[in-house]
């Protein structure tokens, strides 16, 4: 069964934050290449993280390619050929981990926003000063490499800006490669300030889009976004952050990172069909979520 067929029948559980799982396993990600660096240096750690999420109940693994770009790796002296290999290997590692668990599993190839390559928080602002064509030219090479690895779907995620969403859609339109489009939001708008109605409307008429939604946002912002995204007639994908709060004085997170799962029933009631977690959600949080959704 392909993922689209599954979404027509039931809710599907996504994984959580790849970086969170890697940090919990003791890996240092204080690097501009973030979790993408481990594809180069410790690929087995990436596979282990996928396996931990699968064993926790995730049915879809999102690859560690979020911050893998030709430009970012070239700055570290990595050739274009090697970067292309790493992009493809991100899909292979997730697929390999799936072979160690029973039941149907899918792989979503992560396509992070342009701002992720800058490693300066721009993915939470958008408005990069680039044209739609320039953004399309940035995204095209890695989307082509990821698509060549034959994931079940492209996860175009944490998109802050309608302009960038349209650029990616320009690349994918007509390719026959399924994708979901997920925005980063604050309240009822994209991080760049556009209304969600406008943001979700750009997928109209593009056959490759199999779901739309939001990720890397506050859990309390999800319900309204699901309602708006449902108007597209497509399944809705949501994977917010844990809802934990950063205590700057104590330099620590407060909260246990599993409470967001209590809201999942409302999200699915409004039309969410792909549900998981993003930042600060590790395998334990996904296990709690999977059990909540099963109940």
TrEMBL record:
Zn(2+) binds at residues 216, 278-279. One of its GO terms (molecular function) is zinc ion binding. GO terms for biological process: methionine biosynthetic process; methylation; S-methylmethionine cycle. The keyword Transmembrane does not apply. Residues 1-293 form the Hcy-binding domain. Pfam families: S-methyl_trans. Keywords: Metal-binding, Methyltransferase, Transferase, Zinc. Its cofactor is Zn(2+). The keyword Kinase does not apply. SUPFAM superfamilies: Homocysteine S-methyltransferase. Binds 1 zinc ion per subunit. PANTHER family: HOMOCYSTEINE S-METHYLTRANSFERASE-LIKE ISOFORM 1, ZGC:172121. This is Homocysteine methyltransferase. It comes from Lentzea aerocolonigenes.
């Amino acid at each position: 069964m392909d993922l689209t067929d599954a979404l027509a029948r039931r809710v599907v559980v996504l994984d959580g934050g790849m970086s969170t799982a890697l940090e919990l396993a003791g890996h240092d990600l204080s690097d501009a290449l973030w979790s993408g660096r481990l594809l180069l240096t410790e690929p087995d750690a990436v596979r282990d993280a996928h396996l931990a999420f699968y064993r926790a109940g995730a049915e879809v693994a999102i690859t560690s390619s979020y911050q893998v770009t030709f430009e970012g790796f070239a700055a570290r002296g990595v050739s274009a050929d090697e970067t292309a290999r790493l992009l493809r290997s991100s899909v292979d590692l997730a697929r390999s981990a799936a072979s160690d668990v029973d039941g149907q599993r899918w792989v979503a190839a992560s396509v992070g926003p342009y701002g992720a390559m800058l490693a300066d928080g721009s993915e939470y602002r958008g408005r990069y000063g680039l044209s739609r064509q320039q953004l399309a030219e940035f995204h095209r090479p890695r989307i082509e490499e990821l698509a060549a690895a034959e994931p079940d779907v492209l996860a175009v995620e944490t998109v802050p800006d309608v302009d960038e969403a349209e650029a990616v859609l320009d690349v994918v339109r007509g390719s026959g490669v399924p994708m979901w489009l997920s925005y980063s939001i604050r309240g009822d708008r994209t991080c760049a300030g556009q209304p969600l109605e406008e943001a979700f409307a750009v997928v109209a008429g593009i056959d490759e889009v199999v779901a739309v939604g939001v990720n890397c946002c506050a859990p309390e912002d999800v319900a309204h976004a699901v309602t708006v995204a449902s108007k597209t007639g497509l399944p809705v994908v949501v994977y917010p952050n844990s809802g934990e709060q950063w205590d700057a004085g104590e330099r620590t997170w407060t909260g246990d990172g599993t409470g967001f799962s209590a809201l999942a029933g409302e999200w699915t009631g409004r039309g969410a069909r792909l549900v998981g977690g993003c930042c600060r959600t590790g395998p334990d949080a996904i296990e709690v979520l999977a059990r909540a959704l099963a109940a």
